[in-house]
Design brief:
Layout lengths: L15 H13 L4 H18 L1 H14 L5 H27 L2 H5 L2 E4 L1 H9 L4 E4 L6 H9 L5 E4 L5 H12 L7 E3 L3 H9 L3 E4 L10 E6 L2 E6 L1 H8 L3 E9 L6 E5 L11 H18 L27
Parallel strand pairs: 1-9, 2-5, 2-8, 3-4, 3-5
Antiparallel strand pairs: 6-7, 8-9
Helix pairs in contact: 2-4, 3-4, 4-7, 4-8
């Protein structure tokens, strides 16, 4: 995709409220990092009170995935999850507007050698990530150290899309945005030895998925990871990130490539990916995007897991 460019019509009065909101957000994120953590938690507490539908989905997911936990512990996780979501709002703005040097001080990166080895060998890398609430800031921090291309879906508001793309791509001018539906373009980049951020942890429907267990529940799991790895001749390199509790920043871990991947069957690959997802989420459940209907698609004849709500 071409680099984002400012358009004159972005100054149209209908975009003024958005510009005003973005300007206010820019002012707030000039505050010290620890102050932003406090404000973010407060925003998350407010979201917990008013976002009834999202609160229900997140609570239901925690109930489905961690039935062994006492209800009081799941409630604590739920509130912490909303606090993390509130903080993520300011982390997004930090990644867009903080000076690169200021942002880089928050990075604690491990395993960068795995990406560097793939690049040195001229082999593409599928950076297999998850939808943590720290997704935006984690990608920015890693992008300062290594060129990472990203799957991208255009935002409906052109001004927000411009700000978002410019903010994301400024950390590494060599990085590219790939339309999520542009499979051919993604494979071309992988064959050229580039690394692409890719997250297979959401429900994209039954048509392009297989039902394999996730936390003991048959979950629609995309088979694209296997196809991309095989057709792009790429390594699959897991990537996790975590906001550190002591306020010192973020731990980003690039794990060793999955050995013998792709395997014998797509079903075995999907199961292996879901097992890795379970392990990653158990380590940091409060920072995951639980507000997504992960188990929306169901196998034929299976009961729905989310109630219809007003």
């Amino acid at each position: 995709m071409d680099r984002p460019r400012f358009r004159r019509y972005f100054l149209h009065p209908r975009f003024w409220p958005l510009w005003l909101g973005l300007g206010l957000l820019w002012l707030i994120v000039q505050l010290p990092y620890r102050a932003l953590l406090v404000i973010g938690r407060a925003l998350g507490a407010l979201m917990y009170l008013v976002a009834g539908e999202r609160r229900y989905i997140a609570a239901r997911n925690l109930e489905l995935c961690f039935p062994q936990l006492p209800s009081v512990e799941r409630q604590r996780l739920l509130k912490e999850n909303f606090a993390s979501t509130g903080i993520a709002f300011f982390e997004m703005a930090m990644s867009w507007w903080w000076p690169k040097a200021r942002l880089a001080r928050l990075a604690h990166i491990e395993g960068l050698e795995h990406l560097q080895a793939a690049q040195r060998d001229g082999q593409g890398a599928i950076l297999m990530a998850l939808h943590f609430t720290t997704l935006e800031v984690g990608a920015a921090l890693l992008g300062q150290e290594h060129t990472i291309d990203g799957m991208y879906r255009e935002h409906g508001n052109p001004v927000f899309d411009f700000i978002q793309r410019r903010g994301r791509e400024r950390h590494n001018l060599d990085s590219l945005a790939v339309e999520r539906e542009d499979v051919r373009g993604m494979l071309k980049l992988l064959r050229a030895g580039r690394a692409i951020w890719y997250a297979p942890d959401q429900d994209y429907g039954a048509k392009q998925s297989l039902f394999v267990p996730l936390f003991g529940i048959e979950a629609a799991t995309v088979t694209a990871t296997t196809k991309f790895a095989r057709l792009g001749k790429a390594r699959v390199i897991p990537f996790t990130q975590q906001r550190l509790a002591d306020g010192s920043g973020y731990r980003l871990v690039i794990h060793p490539p999955l050995a013998d991947f792709p395997g014998e069957t797509e079903e075995a690959d999907c199961l292996r990916i879901n097992q890795w997802i379970e392990t990653a989420l158990r380590e940091c459940p409060e920072q995951y995007l639980w507000a997504h209907r992960r188990f929306k698609s169901r196998p034929p004849g299976a009961p729905k897991l989310y109630e219809k709500r007003r």
